[in-house]
Amino acid sequence: MPAPPKRLTLSQKDIVRAYYRNSTHRTLKNTCAWVMHEFGITLNRSTVSRILQCTRDYSEANIDAAAAMLSRYN
């Protein structure tokens, strides 16, 4: 059985940002719990904070998935 992924993809990061914008309970702790429930990935609050601070939107970008995984902190 393959291990679950340890990093969020660019599209998952966009989903996290959208969840945070649309959530009624906007706390980093709640967002971390939601990420664990949705994606099965445990993130620290500082990591979620960094994801939320990023203003880049990759939803319209045509990025090869393999190339996107080359950079650790997208």
UniProtKB/TrEMBL annotation:
<dbReference type="InterPro" id="IPR041188">
    <property type="entry name" value="HTH_ABP1_N"/>
</dbReference>
<dbReference type="InterPro" id="IPR009057">
    <property type="entry name" value="Homeodomain-like_sf"/>
</dbReference>
<dbReference type="Pfam" id="PF18107">
    <property type="entry name" value="HTH_ABP1_N"/>
</dbReference>
<protein>
    <recommendedName>
        <fullName>ARS-binding protein 1 N-terminal domain-containing protein</fullName>
    </recommendedName>
</protein>
<feature type="domain" description="ARS-binding protein 1 N-terminal">
    <location>
        <begin position="6"/>
        <end position="52"/>
    </location>
</feature>
